[in-house]
């Protein structure tokens, strides 16, 4: 009698689909969160690119300006308009200025812009995941742009 009930237990098919679904559910949720984070990362990256280009264009075309402060202000303005996911306060800005292309190639840079027609703008932004833990998505978005400073040319 016990042999028959044990045999029936292993041959029973009730609940198999539910069990398989429950085993796959955590992976499906993780995949959904991962897709959301990747979409958010791409939106943030595109917003960062556009905000940086617009901010640099405004800063480089303004005469007698503190480029670092102008870039930070303009970047904050642009990012508020472009994406609710991006916070400009998390961005690290660095500027280097060069007299000519030879200085740029040899990395002989200046920290001030007086009569330095080339400006290298670097923005580093640490991406903060929203749904996934930070160790799964640990990104630093880095953008470097070399511009001709309109008002610093000889």
UniProtKB/TrEMBL annotation:
Any stretches that span the bilayer, and where are they? 21-43
Per UniProt, the keywords (alphabetical) are: Membrane, Transmembrane, Transmembrane helix
Domain of life of the native organism: Bacteria
Domain TadE-like, chain residue ranges per copy = 15-51
What the entry lists under Pfam families is as follows: TadE (PF07811)
Please name the InterPro entries in this protein's record: TadE-like_dom
This protein is called what?
A: Tight adherance operon protein E
Species for this entry: Hamiltonella defensa subsp. Acyrthosiphon pisum (strain 5AT)
This protein's encoding gene? tadE
């Amino acid at each position: 009698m016990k042999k028959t009930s044990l045999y029936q237990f292993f041959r029973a098919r009730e609940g198999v689909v539910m069990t398989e679904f429950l085993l796959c559910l955590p992976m499906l949720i993780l995949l959904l969160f991962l897709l959301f984070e990747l979409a958010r990362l791409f939106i943030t990256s595109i917003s960062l690119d556009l905000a940086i280009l617009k901010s640099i264009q405004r800063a480089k075309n303004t005469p007698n300006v503190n480029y670092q402060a102008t870039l930070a202000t303009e970047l904050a303005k642009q990012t508020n308009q472009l994406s609710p996911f991006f916070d400009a306060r998390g961005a690290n800005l660095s500027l280097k200025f060069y007299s000519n292309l030879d200085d740029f190639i040899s990395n002989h840079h200046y920290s001030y812009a007086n009569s330095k027609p080339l400006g290298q703008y670097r923005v580093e932004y640490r991406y903060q995941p929203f749904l996934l833990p930070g160790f799964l998505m640990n990104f630093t978005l880095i953008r470097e742009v070399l511009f001709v400073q309109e008002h610093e040319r000889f």
